[in-house]
Amino acid sequence: MTDLLLEAARRRTFAIISHPDAGKTTLTEKLLLFGGAIQLAGTVKGRKAARHATSDWMELEKQRGISITSSVMQFPYKDCMINLLDTPGHEDFSEDTYRTLTAVDSALMVIDAAKGVEDRTIKLMDVCRLRDTPIMTFINKLDREGREPIELLDEVESVLKIQCTPITWPIGMGKRFKGVYHLIDDSVHLYTPGKGSVRQDVTVIKGIDNPLLNDVLGDHVAELRDEIELVRGA
What we know:
By secondary structure, this protein is α/β, with parallel strands linked by helices. The chain folds into two domains: about 160 residues, Rossmann fold (3-Layer(aba) Sandwich), CATH 3.40.50.300; about 70 residues, Rossmann fold, CATH 3.40.50.300. The protein is about 30% helix and about 20% strand. The longest helix is centred in the last third of the chain and has 14 residues.
């Protein structure tokens, strides 16, 4: 295999799509941060002391806090070269998003935990379905008050007409949010509030039956174990 073919084979291109204000650009910024492409995550229409999001390069985007055009950011991750596309969510700029979706391997659909599936979510899912584009759904804003995860899961399946298999599961919601449990590798990833702009080490505890969880999660641990048993049995 030639160098060109080898380089092409390691490329992974995916778009982040959502209804407006679900947190698409903020998630893009965090992926760049944890992928090592940037050292400090920017904000969408944030404080004067904060830097703007990397994908919001137009002055109007910075002023209004919305994505107007699609932006592509590239960075290496493990053995792959990632092409990450942040797309406009507003219907006024939808044609740009639709064109972008013709060039991706997969899409990450962001859903607001409080609002669930919205109008643009449905339309974007239809566009992806036309091209058989694989979809991963990301439930955002778990640290704010929102709907129950089981309810959100049912809505995604019934409204978008897709079968869902959870990979991670939230530990509490809103003010009670403690982190997420990874169902595949059986590990708990603890959440630290207020430190999302810089990369930091995450506390990971292996095993849902690990006695350490009783000390860290307290009363939450019994609820988590019950929910995971329910999810795995579904």
